[in-house]
Amino acid sequence: MRLLRSALLLTAACWPLAAVAQTAPTAQVAVKPIAFKERVLPNGLRVYAIRDTGTPNVSVQVWYDVGSKDDPTGKSGFAHMFEHLMFKSTRNLVSEQMDRLTEDVGGYNNASTNDDYTNYYEVVPANHLQRLLFAEADRMASLVVEPTSFASERDVVKEELRQSTLARPYGKLFSLYYPALAYQAHPYARGTIGSLENLEAAGIDDVRAFHATYYRPDNAVLVVSGNFDQQQLDGWIDSYFAKIKKPAGAIPRVTVAEPARAKAISRTVYEPNTPLPAVLISYHIPADRDADIPALSVLKAVLATGESSRLYESVVYRQQLAQSADAMLDSKQSTGNLAVYAIMAGGKTAADGEAALKAEIGRLRDAPVTAAELAEAKNEILTQSIQSRETAEGKASTLAASVIIDGDPHAADRQLAEIARVTAADVQRVARKYLADAQSATIRYLPLASKPNDAAATPIEIAQTVRVADLTAPANITVVTPAPEAERIQPPAPGTQVATTIPQPTETRLANGMRLITVERHDLPIVTAYLVTSGGAATDPANRAGASAMAAGLLTKGTRTRSATQIARQVEGLGGAISSDAASDGASVDVTVKADQLAPALAILADVAINPAFDPAEIERARTQQIDAVALALKNPAQLAALVADRAVLGTSPYGAPIDGTPASLKALTRADITKAYATSFRPDQATLIMVGDVTTARAKALAEAQFAGWKAAAAATRPIPPIAYPSPRVIVVDMPEAGQAGVVVARPTIARSDSRYYPLAVANTVLGGGFSSRLNQEIRIKRGLAYGASSGLDAGKTQGTVAARTQTKNPTAAEVVTLISAEMARMGSAPVPPGELDTRKAVLIGGFGRTIETTSGVAAILGAYVQNGVPLGELQRFTGAVGSVDPAAAQAAAAALLDPKAASIVVVGDAKQFIEPLRKAYPTVEVIPETALNLDTAALK
């Protein structure tokens, strides 16, 4: 389950766009508020229904008005740990049956714990709606809490803490230190995930008391969104939820008020696994329902949304002080925070960052934002809001958050309408009101190696003045036990399946050879334009890794007629965001905008693709930023393990080098290397423009011809990549002392995407490591609690492929996890997958595909991958049938040939002294490479 901290979720309202400066005189977009039906059951359960017959899916969400602020004394992280236990057994459901009801039929489930709420949400084919309502009601009314599941999930949460907080660079900064310094009285001071000590302090009686206290119908919100019959839905809800009794006792509420901060506070901490200094400054803001939140939302967008934002332009781009800089509007039921932060560039100090961040905050106080900035911020918020409602799940989440955080299902629509009325004076007023220097809390987060011997320790701990209540157990708690087999009520049978509508692309070519693919979708006023090319990182010279990635990244950093700043301001002024990237077998540029802004957005996309300037100053700026970004990745055990595994499996092949380069290769790049990489990939006869959304085929062609017809090929076509000579498998340990966790990858070569065995292998890989109920996750997380999750991924490219199983675990169990992964890979080829299990994993693939094609960007991404890998567009229509036709024999044959671990390399990145002996016993040829001696520029790795 994952963590969410941001409470403000906006969606689109019927916005009077005449109030927003438009870049082009095109038809205005009108987006209606979310239409819903509301009722409250006699037991207090608030029910909301959002009907949408245009989707074959339905989202069921139950949000409880309890979060980490409600954690009992001495048990921070308790609400989050309890969230995990809700996926175990109930009186009628066996442990993990929620996954059987969702993932195994092509849906998925998840949950999150926030400071203010805990939510549980599922997306399933619509014919499974009744089954999910039964299951959600059963775990609300009759959760079984027993010692085995409790102990197992507590271990899983410990691994989640190690993964997200201890192993990840800057994990402590955001998860622990930021809230602890921000609050002196309110229990928001405690991090959502808690601490290892607090997790150990939780007992099974506490869990039962917590459920009885907060998991009750009058403390919950049920939202159903998608394809359903309203009368039938009402009947099911009455049948399953209305009979749950409302407890007599009152629900405990946190009433602590955080005092205003009248004096600036600051702390300096030194932490291991910190490649670059960082600084974070937070300021208190009012509750999300406050009238000032719309102005603060616009302020945050001006400050930190996109590359035309003030933080990026000033701190990252012009001054080159930071590798990245951003802001969070962390609004809540009570006092929240606006936080700004920067990860510094190499050679820059936290003091530099602190001064720069405070200078930008000061500018907001000292002068009104410009009219252009105001219009841009509003357009960006509107586009993001339209995107958030492309799916049933997105609409349900938006409405539920409005109810829980603001107490009003119309809050998101109301806030968005209020944002349209925000003035420059409003933005300056709230900056002066909330962002004074005296109201700041500053954290300087520095590498441990930089700590002077005489530096005074300034720990960041939860203040003694934070007021936290004890958990008072309700009287007469009923301990629920599983019903005897004969008495267990089974979930109802699925209903009649709702047919999925597969998008139908149309294709044409311009005279210059460029392909144009269009998919019309007119349900929302949004369009994704996605230009993809062949070539890519596999064409980079052996000693110039990162050339294609640098070339792609620089496309948006200046053309012959537009500077980098102008590109960012113009695109973001339309409410969009332009991005460019390189993959192994190609490169891309994309933008998603409101439909009324497609023409000007496409003009900019064409300009950056056809006319990049590759200005030397921009190259140096990008080089510095990329080297710093690589430095961050190299300090993350999981990311580093993946990079080392690619080198081990693919050897000297161009596919083995890091796509984003290494510090050494990036320093060696010349402008000629970069322009050559661009010319190799970007030519019209190797390019395809994909447009998906609210655009007709005729208009798409007219716009494409207007912008791309003059593009001429200026270089030789890309040469085919020679066949790969795969090296012998290796076992490699990268010793990273003091790593908070070990990253483990077991990877091997496999097939290209065009291989006839692709679908049997894809299904076999999904059995192995696709989804929560996959074999790897069952063995490593569910049965043993050794990791937060374990998975495997198939990366089948144009000419080659790899399959990699991966996880993160505490250092002492790394060798055990390697053994488990290898055993499961071998088992895949040793016997046929039982038909029932095979069907569930095929459903995972088909369901994921169906959810992806619900969004314009999802359809564009699938088609773009088809183009780059040489797959016919008809694959879009064929996918479901091809997956469904895979039988146990075909899956076993593919697994035996292509998942056998004997051909796999094993990589473990972590604190070697904690696991090297048992690993060496199993693999006597293991190579140990100190982190400081690792060399990704060579296949030898050292």
Offer a quick outline of the entry.
The chain is of the alpha+beta class and 942 residues long. 39% of the residues lie in helices and 18% in strands.
Percentage of residues in helical conformation: 25-40%
Helix tally? 31
Q: Which CATH architecture of the largest domain would you pick?
A: 2-Layer Sandwich
Overall number of strands: 24
CATH superfamily of the largest domain: Metalloenzyme, LuxS/M16 peptidase-like
Which topology of the largest domain does CATH recognise?
Cytochrome Bc1 Complex, Chain A, domain 1
Radius of gyration, in angstroms, nearest whole number: 27 Å
CATH class of the largest domain: Alpha Beta
Strand content: 15-25%
Look at the structure and give the mean pLDDT: 93
Largest sheet: 7 strands, mixed
Describe this structure in words.
With 942 residues, this protein is an alpha+beta fold. It is built from 31 helices and 24 strands. Helix 1 (78-85) packs across helix 4 (147-167), helix 9 crosses helix 12 and helix 25 (775-782) runs antiparallel to helix 26.
